[in-house]
Amino acid sequence: MIDFGKPLGMGCLRLPLFDEKEPENIDMEKAKKHIDIFQENGYKYYDTSYVYHKGNSEKALGTLLVDRYPRDAYLISTKMPIKWMTKPEQMELHFQEQLDRLHLDCIDFYLVHMMERETYTRCEKWGAIEFLKQKRAEGKFKEFGVSVHDTPEFLEEVLTTHPEIDFVMLQINYVDWVNPSIRAGESYKVALKFGKPIVVMEPCKGGTLASLPEKASALMKAYNPDASEASWAYRFVATLPGVRMTLAGMPDTKFLEDNLKTFDDLKPLNEAELKIIDQVIEIINENTVIPCTGCNYCTENGCPQNIPIADNFGLINDMKRFENSSNAGNINRVNIQADYYESWVKNGAGPASSCIACKKCERICPQNLPIVSYLAEYVVPLLENWQHKA
Ligand code: SF4
Ligand code: SF4
Which of 52, 140, 270, 372 has the smallest set of CB atoms within 10 Å of its CB? Predict the structure, then answer.
């Protein structure tokens, strides 16, 4: 029996940074402090990948966790970046490199990263599942899983063909539970049907459920003034039967502390709270133009025009929130448009209108967003053309 500690895992896609525009530049002192707080409070699960923080996430865990704590004090999950590979030999090469980065001889959990149709086809062609079975048999990790970004039907197909898969990682949160482009509730049921333990990613939908529109926030505060918005999102997923672990990015100490408060005394949402969640979903859907989580996979995959896709989509959503909120803090339309100008003109990024529709970004987007259309429909008219007129 594996001792998982408390059921919150540190999502090392979002370690503390000095500057959000430099994801490779981890604030190691702050990350060390977060790991220490996590460990001291009985949490021990860390989820990383070959690509997070441009490779520095695994290295940070090697230095800050593995070198400083006994082997039984933590569990590390990392992922095979087959989607980013060009030849089968890289499966072995990258695996060895990951062990080196992590300073480990054996990992605890190893997943196929970004499993969707294209990745699956490559897995089948290259014998990736056989490779993983072999590594598991050699004791190189305890279990292997798949982090799935596709339909429930696809998940069913993969688990039927490969019953040897030990667990699944799914994007589940209360908005995507019934979101027709994600269908998280249906995928959850497929995993349960196959008896696979579930690790939840994006429980807060890239942080968006921790920063709700004013009207939604007011509903939650009226019911429980002491509970953070994020705590509602975590309680929704972490108490679902079959969920083994919930992952959360915690770049700020205040988020980390709030999450520990939620998970130290984890309770399912009651009926009244679930009714509030239904209302909140409606409000969010009214206020979200582009359901981008800000994961930045699209830009890390190398947009040839260097367009800051997630930044642009974030600004469009902020603009909508501003227009629908009586209290949007410092956000105002002019500031948002000026931010856009800063993001591409000053920092040399590409304007949305320079998109050549190569769809490299769309092929990797875990949310299956029609990025090219969104850029043309929203970013160009609302942000770029405004700047041209100014
Ligand atoms: S489709 Fe446009 S935004 Fe996407 S990668 Fe190609 S140029 Fe960049
Ligand atoms: S557009 Fe898709 S891949 Fe890019 S940041 Fe948003 S959710 Fe992630």
Answer: 270
| Ligand 1 pocket, mutate which of 311, 312, 343, 356 (most atoms under 8 A from CB) | 356
Chain CA centroid to CA 282, Å: 22
Tell me: do 265 and 325 sit in the same domain: no
Residue 239 belongs to what domain range? 8-286
- 157: which 2 tokens? 């197909």
Say yes or no: 33 and 53 in one domain. yes
- CA 358 – CA 49 distance, rounded (Å): 26
pLDDT per position as a tens digit, 209-236: 998 888 999 999 999 999 999 999 999 9
Beta pairing, strands 109-115 & 45-47: unpaired
* Mutational pocket test of ligand 2: of 292, 296, 300, the residue with most ligand atoms within 8 Å of the beta carbon: 292
Sign of CA dihedral 238, 241, 245, 249: negative
Residue 2 forms part of a structural domain: no
Rounded Cα distance, 331 and 69, in Å? 43
- In angstroms, the CA 36 to CA 33 distance is 5
Residue 331: per-residue pLDDT = 45
CA of 294 to the centre of ligand 2 (A): 5
Neighbours of 39 (CB within 10 A): 17
Tally of domains within the chain: 2
From the list 180, 206, 237, the residue with the least C-alpha distance to 368 is 180
